[in-house]
Amino acid sequence: MGAPLWEALCRAAASVGSGFHTPGHNGGTGLPEPLKYWRNWGALDLSELEGLDNLHAPVGVIAQAQQLAAEAWGAERSWFLINGSTVGIAAMLLATVGEGDTVLLPRNCHQSVLHALVLCGAKPVYLEASWDSTWELSHGPTLESVEVSLASYPEARAVLVVHPTYFGATGEVAAIARAVHAQGIPLLVDAAHGAHFRFHEALPVCALAAGADVVVHSAHKTLPALTQAALLHQQGSLVDPGRIEAALRLLQSTSPSYLLMASLDLARAQMVNSGHTLLAGALVLAEKLRAHLPFAVLAMEPDRPVPGLAALDPTRITIDVAGCGWSGFAAEAWLNQEAGVRAELATHRHLVFILNTAHGLLDIEKLRSALFALAAEPAPAGALLSCPVPRPRPGEQRLTPRQAFERPHRRLPLAQAIGCTSAAAVSAYPPGVPIVLPGEAISAEAVDYLLALTAAGGEIVGLDPQGRLALCLD
Ligand SMILES: Cc1ncc(COP(=O)(O)O)c(C=O)c1O
Fold first, then answer.
1. Which residues approach ligand 1 with their CB closer than 6 A?
2. 433 C-alpha to center of ligand 1: Å?
3. The CATH number, out of the four listed (3.40.640.10, 3.30.499.10, 3.50.50.60, 3.40.50.1970), of the domain defined by the range 34-38+53-271
4. Which of 341, 373, 351 is nearest to 296 (CA)?
5. For residues 172 and 306, is the Cβ–Cβ distance under 8 A?
6. Per-residue model confidence (pLDDT) at position 130
7. Where residue 432 falls among pLDDT bands split at 50, 70, 90?
């Protein structure tokens, strides 16, 4: 009897060349030493034995480890998450908004935010996303757009922003926190990609230091922690920690993996003890890499200010390959097959590489020479996107995400869905930012874009295996 997943996993692990992607432990080389050198991981796969505490009512070692995490990130309370930031986002929304409540959030949020709205029943009002037309990327909402929405929707019960985006872009989060607090409501931050910010001053500000009330961190993305290990932090008096705890009890397994929780504890200890030095190394490598590349690199340009873009994570290298005729999808495949280099993310024209604390000079040189080889290679014909990228604009919102989820559905191919109400979020994955939102009318622009993305080699999630979309019946 074969075990196809196990076999594929072994092949993938054996073929790892140079990876510039999550998890942040770099194929195990960057794991904290106790975990890296532990021979029999099966022996660590335990449950709530004597002395090991209970995640859902922690009074012993889990409580201590969570308290140390709170101290490390400067929070009042921190909780261990064993289902990624996805579960933290659901918990922070369940803890702060309920059925029919208004929550302000950016349109370019991760699909887990939309899924959390299905759970809590809140009504999203989308903040105007800023749009970088040169890079065809949307960054965070501007302070001004948050202020305008707060004034237009005084009934809003919470604001959620992403800090940073998948591309490492951050907005004016401290000023946004002040504006949100002036209304007496909390700022929730999806900082899935920003767990490392706290540990080096050259990185953008940590959302907690900027005053956010609840923050979620995918430790596994940028720290040496195992996949799915994440953190939820809270501070201040605007959100009741008891409600967060109740939400986490609802959402998290009663059999949490001690391996995941221990990897969070160890990653925290490593970052507190030597994170600054490790990150300083990664920052030097990032600077060296950025200095000499054959493609344009996303950077802060003082003579090209972009609204909503206040700072970029230097350890995230976003390049634009379309200038050389490549799509990001084709370039990603070429790099993987021909050069043994793996990117974190490809879009129709971008590649994103993540530098972590375990990368060394050899990795950087390998990436650089692979990119020069790519630039010298003729691009495959017809790989580029055949239609413009739609700006993320609010569409006609007919139902809340929960109402859309609960309505009876029918399924139709994408091309026949124009004008219908979507029952689901449809995203290119990664980055998982929905192009069609649940409860919204489906525009011709979005359908054209999704079809063009699929034709160009992008992976779409939210459709069934026949490529059909779930639509709400009236
Ligand atoms: C911006 C953002 N938020 C949340 C998530 C969900 O994080 P996790 O995979 O840890 O559940 C992701 C995942 O890629 C993300 O990119």
1. 84-86, 110, 112, 162, 166, 190, 192-193, 218, 230, 431-432
2. 10
3. 3.40.640.10
4. 351
5. no
6. 86
7. confident
